[in-house]
Each structure stands twice: as structure tokens, then as C-alpha cells.
Amino acid sequence: MNFIQNIDVSIVLWIQNTLRSDSMTTFWSLITCLGNGGAFWIVSAVFLLCFKKTRPVGITALVSLMLCNLATNLILKELFARPRPFQYTDAVIPLIKNPGDYSFPSGHTSASFSCAFIYYRMLPEKYGIPSILLASMIAFSRIYLGVHYPTDILGGILVACIGSRAAWQATHTAADADKKE
Fold first, then answer.
1. Is 78 helix (H, G, I), strand (E, B) or coil?
2. pLDDT of residue 176
């Protein structure tokens, strides 16, 4: 086991042995469900599309979500093929059904932060901070439930940072070009 893997496993086991309780498990299970398939973030972006004033935010969020989903689920998970914590060691007890794909990077985290970073950039007062907080909670829930390592979460955040920046640049470059015509 390498140094980073040792730290990752130690953190997951510490959370499992120190923070888990029935009431907290119910709470974190509900939080993680918000990130399933990016559902909450898709709905929030589509909602923003409904209003002319927030439509650019909704479009940018959906582009960010698509870029991050492609990078995370079609490229990086397959490239790294990292087993989930409970597949690596029997000491980790997952609290939800096996997600069925690889661990690195976290798709829930990537999807959550892909939109949260856009909302923070484009609607900081109204949606930005709450979105970052919710994305952080969804990310933590994945470790709490025993299906991700902390470095999977950091990888998902990094993908979202790059993807959201690319989406923002692409949509704003396109919008600037439309204004010039």
C-alpha cells in the first residue's frame, strides 16, 4: 500500500469508526441522493434556463456538467480504474449499494462542483455560497458512506474546477461573438 493510499484508508476508517451513527447515516444518505446522476444539479440548471435573466447561468452550468461528466465517467474513471474503499479493504463497510463503477474521481463531487462553481461565479450572492456548501456536503457524504476516498473527492473537485472554467470561457466567448454580430 502506498503512502497516499494509507492516508486515504485511514481517513475513511476514522470517519467510519468515529462519526457514523444511525441518524447521521440517514442524513448523509439523503444528501448523497441529491447527487445521484447529477439530478439536483440538472434540475437547478434547467430551472435557471426558464428565466431570461438567469438563462446564461443555466446554459453554462449544463455545459459544465456535460464536460465534467464526460471527463469523469468516460475518461478518468476508466483510465485510473481505482477500486472503491470497500473493494480495497474489508475493514471499510459501505452504507449504500455498490455504485458499480470505479472510485477515482468522484462523479457525485465532479457533477456537484461543476454547477456550484458556475453558480458561485455567475450568481454569487443568491446561489453561489449555498451551492458550494451543498456540493461540499454531497462530496463528504461519499466518504462517510464508504464509497470514496478523500483523494477521489479532491480529484472530482479538480475536474469540476477545470470543466467549469472551460464551460464559462466557451459560453462567454460564444456570447461575446453573438454580441459583435
1. helix
2. 63
